[in-house]
Amino acid sequence: MLKVENLNFQITEDGKTKKIIDDVSFEVADGELLVITGPNGGGKSTLAKLLMGVEKADSGRIFLDGEEITDYDINHRANAGLGFAFQQPPRFKGMTVEKLLSLAAGKQLPTAVCCKLLSNVGLCAKEYINRQVDATLSGGEMKRIEIATAMAKEHKICIYDEPEAGIDLWSFTMLVKQFEKIHKEKKESIIIISHQERIINMADRIMVIKDGKVEKTGQKEEVMQGLFMDNPVCGCMDEESC
User: Fold this and answer.
1) What is the set of domains in the chain, with CATH numbers?
2) Considering the entire predicted model, what is its pTM?
3) I need a labelling partner for 228 at 20 to 30 A (CA). Which of 86, 110, 117, 153 fits?
4) What 8-state DSSP symbol labels residue 234?
């Protein structure tokens, strides 16, 4: 179980201090799928980075299965059982996709396993297994490879930051099936940051973040009606087309 207590994070720009995450507390139970949604700029991605240790919180505490990981760096959090898929994945010139998947898994993966991981996110394995993870890959291709790396290893809890962004509808459908499979097996908890209605509908619970604060949280049925009445969620696959 993940437990977050009174998390705070602020930045200073041009001599002015702005609070990005404001006293956020929540829990994620074993095997639970929590979807975090809310307006753009509300602090969702920052919260994800604080959980993974990409950014360091100013105050607050984070626990994983009763073990405090607040002061752990990224590597220690990964070893403790946290996984993370960036909204904008980094590129690694000179590294092949197959090598990246093995590094993510923490062991040398058979080529057949790497191919299966790529196929699960809508990529033709033969075309991508030996590609370099560099600027020759499009944003959508990088996004799917990033998600495959997160799925290459079992975690206690894995965080996906807007996994639907920049991918086509067919790949998105395959991705949803993978989330449904993981959720059904209950082998790990999942946090997904998303605006996409189909992903929100998969949730056990929904948490709405606005202006850095938890505006609303609860079981899916409790939150859904108000969420779509008060703050309609776009079902588009490409936010730029809205």
Assistant:
1) 1-30 (no CATH), 91-187 (3.40.50.300)
2) 0.86
3) 86
4) P
